[in-house]
Amino acid sequence: MKRRNFLNQSSLGMTSILVAPHVMGCSSKAQGSAAARKNSPYVISTWNVAEANSIAGKALENGVNALDAAVAGVAFEEANIQNTTVGKGGAPDRDGNVTLDACVMNHHGDCGAVLAVENITHVAALAKDVMEHTPHVILAGAGARKFALERGYTPEELLTESSRKDWKKWLEKGNYQPEINVENHDTIGMLCCDTEGNLSGVCTTSGLAYKMQGRVGDSPIIGSGLYIDNEVGGAVATGLGEEVIKTVGSFLIVELMRQGRTPQQACEEAVQRIVKKQQGKPDFQVAYVATNKKGQVGAFSVHSGFSYSMYKDQTNQNIKSNSVF
Ligand code: SD4
After folding, report:
1. CA distances from 54 to 51, 234, 261, 319, 322 (A)
2. Is 218 in the pocket of ligand 1 (CB under 6 A)?
3. What is the pTM of this model?
4. Does 236 sit in the ligand 1 pocket, CB within 6 Å?
5. What is the topology classification, in CATH, of domain 3-323?
6. What is the pLDDT of residues 87-120, one digit of tens each?
7. Ligand 1 centroid to 18 CA: how many Å?
């Protein structure tokens, strides 16, 4: 619903991206005359999320701002019940409750987050509403759900037949092994750079499958799952949230880029900080993607299997990340 609104509201059309196709990157120097302001927009997201990336990318090309484009993009996966790690159809906690986490951050450094929300599919949009319509940054649990209902969100059953079946099967043994998909389709972190050269980001997830009730990972924690500094760049995380939180991973990456590292170098350093604290080969996955104001992009993960999606110049690509192991 919200996605359609964003797309309908945009009226600039394709000509807007043809104004200055040579202007690449996300440089804040591109302020000034109307022509100089135009920037070639792009989207990077964790995992292989071509549809979500294209929705965001096309919105950006139509002049939608970076945050609205990112919220619109991830909304596709939040509503996609085949995706068992985001939104509706996400795996429940060990008691069978689907609880969602999300956060957003824009180019002004404003942010919003919702933690452990039940019955609301579009939690990224809800996090944006927290940012825009409350004096707070974070709303959790029942309070976040209440706020959503007040804002007119429709409550939904998020546990699908298929995820209920998987959960029942898991209950047969009930071993609490945090399950991290090292291959594909997990938490979505999305970074967008718009035609004004501004960066924003979103992170949305159902968190670890069969987590303890009330467990919250890194995804909705500003600085851990997502961080944006429009003077420097942005970063997002996926993987075992506990390890990302311990190193405040996304903030770390942005600060490393501020000190001169490329996005690739910064992602590698942030992953290595986690790996160094382990004895031997970690049995979990953590992965980051990042971008800077020059439009450079980096990605790195603990284990192989991670990939990210990049939309630029009307083209979507899925790119394999390098990894420690
Ligand atoms: C969490 N980081 O809740 C999320 C889960 C995830 O790949 O990204 N899985 O810890």
Report:
1. 5, 19, 29, 15, 24
2. yes
3. 0.88
4. no
5. Glutamine Phosphoribosylpyrophosphate, subunit 1, domain 1 (3.60.20)
6. 999 999 999 999 999 999 999 999 999 999 999 9
7. 38
